[in-house]
Amino acid sequence: MLSIERLIFPAKKGANVAAQPGRFANFFSLWGQRILTFNVFCLSLAFFRATSLHAATQFLAGLSDLSWRSEYATAFLMLGIFAVPLFIVDLLMEAGNQEYPFANTSYAFRTALATAAFVVLALFSGSNLNAFVYFRF
Prior knowledge:
By secondary structure, the protein is mostly helical. Helix content is 62%, strand content 0%. It is built from 6 helices and no strands.
């Protein structure tokens, strides 16, 4: 999938396109490409997680069922709690051209942040043991 993405959307030479001032069209184009690549990649993982090819195609066919379920509210809440802040941090890192945003902060702040992230992860983790997709082989 990543090879196809590189073929369709070749990398531009020079400075970071999204960080150039006045380049909103390029910014949205870049993020559109990232979102498309990520979603196609995630859809392809269904074939690794499913027990058979038929089960994977049934799962993907189920994506066309647009009826509302009560579980979706919880999923959207979790998405808002976890994904939106990470997306905002990523945008800020890209705008500031930084790879490690907390590198210049104090050790105590970084330790407190890591501890808080660990506690949140422990509180919201499920009780069912689900093996990571690559451990199923």
